[in-house]
């Protein structure tokens, strides 16, 4: 790789110190490197944080500085460009952001020497409907969470698979996660860990008022539908769909979200040959 674009979390790299060091190192070794400039707020823009149209066409790798949250944001914004992403963790814990700050230079050397592999990570596409009206459509790399709009208050949710009724939960919410997202919110809710190389849906209820608290795994070609039911005495329920803990789409009783595998995957650059189990063991021992 010779052409790079740096996306930096300006809270964790406030003065772009790390971004500047990386840019300088890459240019000193004959590479081309561009640091994303901060953009003013624009109403009606189609991206969240990174404008994919502002990335030069010949970029071979996006270097994302921050942590897992920053990488999730970048992945959603640039999904249509299909450019591999390398995450550099400037925080304390990261599953997606593989490289720690002290290992940046060796990682850059391996990038320039083409010593890496690229992993494909499936993404989710969620479409929120009110009747037959499409309210919102978005994608997620980790998960789509449906829960109460006010502090995840108890709600009734009806679940369907490929149009057929599955079950009803009265719960704080429900998580539909990818294998990548199995190490996130779903794990905290008691869900299993799944290798990110797998392709499947993971459904995990949030504090359900039932003895059935197990997660359920579905093939990636399925369509998962979560419908907001009515509260006690037929009361209207206020809920929301949260995409990767970032974008919020309000929902109410009778609204539904249909979740399928997204048309495109996220491409993650892997520098080390560590297996998922080795990474997992290392990260969990540092908690």
SSE layout:
Elements: E1 3-8, H1 17-28, E2 32-35, E3 61-66, H2 68-77, E4 85-89, E5 99-100, H3 104-112, E6 117-121, E7 124-130, E8 133-140, E9 143-148, E10 155-161, E11 164-171, E12 173-177, H4 185-188, E13 201-206, E14 216-218, E15 224-228, E16 238-243, E17 247-252, E18 256-261, E19 266-270, H5 276-285
Parallel strand pairs: 1-2, 1-3, 3-4, 4-5
Antiparallel strand pairs: 6-19, 7-8, 7-18, 9-12, 9-16, 10-11, 10-15, 12-13, 13-14, 15-18, 16-17
Question: Can you characterise this structure?
Answer:
The protein is α+β, with helices and mostly antiparallel strands. Helix content is about 15%, strand content about 35%. It has helices at about 15-30, 70-75, 105-110, 185-190, 275-285; strands at about 5-10, 30-35, 60-65, 85-90, 100, 115-120, 125-130, 135-140, 145-150, 155-160, 165-170, 175, 200-205, 215-220, 225-230, 240-245, 245-250, 255-260, 265-270. The strands form four sheets. It has a six-stranded antiparallel beta sheet with strand order 8-7-18-15-10-11. Strand 1 (about 5-10), helix 1 (about 15-30) and strand 2 form a beta-alpha-beta unit. The longest helix is centred in the first third of the chain and has 12 residues, at about 15-30. It starts with a strand and ends with a helix. One of its GO terms (cellular component) is cytoplasm. GO terms for molecular function: ATP binding; metal ion binding; NAD binding; NAD+ kinase activity. It is an enzyme of class 2 (transferase). Keywords: ATP-binding, Cytoplasm, Kinase, NAD, NADP, Nucleotide-binding, Transferase.
């Amino acid at each position: 790789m010779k052409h790079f674009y740096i996306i930096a979390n300006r809270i964790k790299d406030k003065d772009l110190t790390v971004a500047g060091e990386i840019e300088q190192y890459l240019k000193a070794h004959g590479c081309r490197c561009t640091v994303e400039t901060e953009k003013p707020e624009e109403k009606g823009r189609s991206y969240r944080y990174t404008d994919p149209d502002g990335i030069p066409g010949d970029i071979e790798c996006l270097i994302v500085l921050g942590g897992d949250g920053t990488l999730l944001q970048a992945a959603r914004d640039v999904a249509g460009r299909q450019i591999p992403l390398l995450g550099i963790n400037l925080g304390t814990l990261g599953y997606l952001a593989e490289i720690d700050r002290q290992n940046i230079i060796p990682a850059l050397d391996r990038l320039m020497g083409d010593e890496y592999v690229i992993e494909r990570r499936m993404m989710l596409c969620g479409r929120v409907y009110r009747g037959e009206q499409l309210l919102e459509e978005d994608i997620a790399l980790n998960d789509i969470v449906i829960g109460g709009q006010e502090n995840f208050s108890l709600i009734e949710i009806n679940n369907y698979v490929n149009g057929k009724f599955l079950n009803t939960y009265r719960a704080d919410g429900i998580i539909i996660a990818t294998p990548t997202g199995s190490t996130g919110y779903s794990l905290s809710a008691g869900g299993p860990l799944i290798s990110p190389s797998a392709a499947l849906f993971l459904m995990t209820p949030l504090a359900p008022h039932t003895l059935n608290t197990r997660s359920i795994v579905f093939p990636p070609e399925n369509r998962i539908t979560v419908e907001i039911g009515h509260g006690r005495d037929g009361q209207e329920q206020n809920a929301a769909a949260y995409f990767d803990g970032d974008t919020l789409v309000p929902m109410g009783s009778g609204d539904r979200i249909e979740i399928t595998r997204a048309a495109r995957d996220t491409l993650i650059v892997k520098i080390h040959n560590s297996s998922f189990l080795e990474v997992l063991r290392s990260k969990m021992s540092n908690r």
